[in-house]
Specification:
The protein is α+β, with helices and mostly antiparallel strands. 32% of the residues lie in helices and 28% in strands.
């Protein structure tokens, strides 16, 4: 049995072997750890940059208490931590000379770590304006009546259409991403399954996607309707369609993130049966040389 403490590794297979059961025991709060660890495992670490990803496990008496991960282009992510656990992680990372651009987690965890990182490194945390809420589906309640039309699952033959819609979504949320047939497989959008809502004449008006099932859980991501088509029920229809598909695929948990600055989408998801799991926060750090203190 290893001594209690944080253990960091670049080996995603070792991370999943040690922490997989812990992560799957509460898949909702651990959605980001499960998602990104599986992407690294499936695609290879080199897909995410020249710097190796880092995965961390906090062990006590041979049991996993918490986890963390860092991807070069995605910042630093945490499972729920107590302030004491956040502080011990900050001490460990600072001692190893890590420099972190940002941290993402549930609000209390992110705040506790941001404060600890500032204490031990001098880096100044700045809370991002974007506020997210993580929802978990309870009982799915599709909208009534549905708008005229139907949902259509997109396949490999629809790649051009998928890239167009994902590109439009990325622009709408300010996400910088390059999409063409050559780079598509390296984007975070590539491993999702997408459904379009089409009007009776076949015109696409809204899209929703869902990630592969991991640990019995499926994350709905993305949901997007062009601005000039909103307010007609299309987003509710396609989100319900994808949520139903996730349940039909055998998911025991269906989750999604929503931007709290958009009360319309939050109200929509709640009407569909989604219930709050956690509020999410991201802190950016100023550059500061790590030093134990």
């Amino acid at each position: 049995m290893r001594p209690d403490g944080w253990y960091l590794s670049e080996d995603v297979d070792d991370f999943l072997a040690r922490a997989g059961g812990f992560l799957r025991s509460r898949p909702g709060p651990h959605v980001m750890q499960l998602t990104w660890a599986e992407r690294v495992r499936a695609r290879g670490a080199e897909t995410f940059g020249t710097e190796a990803p880092v995965f961390g496990v906090l062990e006590r008496a041979g049991e996993v208490d918490a986890t963390c991960y860092r991807l070069p282009l995605r910042g630093f992510g945490l499972s729920p931590l107590t302030p004491q656990q956040a502080d011990s992680l900050a001490v460990r990372l600072a001692a190893l000379g890590h420099s972190l651009p940002s941290v993402s987690a549930d609000h209390s965890t992110a705040t506790a770590f941001a404060e600890a990182w500032q204490r031990h490194t001098g880096a100044t945390p700045t809370l991002r304006d974007t506020r997210l809420r993580l929802y978990r589906l309870g009982t799915l309640t599709p909208p009534e009546p549905l708008p005229a039309g139907r949902g259509r699952i997109l396949g490999e033959q629809d790649l051009e259409q998928v890239m167009f819609w994902c590109g439009e979504f990325a622009k709408a949320v300010g996400e910088a991403v390059s999409m063409d047939a050559d780079s598509w497989g390296d984007t975070r959008f590539a491993d999702k399954r997408y459904t379009l809502w089409e009007t009776p004449d076949g015109t696409p008006v809204s899209i929703a996607g869902m990630n592969p099932m991991i640990g019995g859980q499926i994350q709905v991501d993305i949901v997007y309707t062009p601005a000039h088509l909103r307010g007609r029920g299309y987003a509710g229809a396609v989100a319900a369609e994808v949520s139903r598909a996730a349940l039909a695929a055998g998911a025991s948990d269906v989750v999604l993130f929503a931007d709290l600055s958009n009360p319309t989408s939050n109200a929509l998801y709640q009407r569909l049966g989604y219930r709050t799991l956690a509020d999410w926060a991201v802190y950016d750090f100023s550059c500061a040389a790590p030093e134990v203190g």
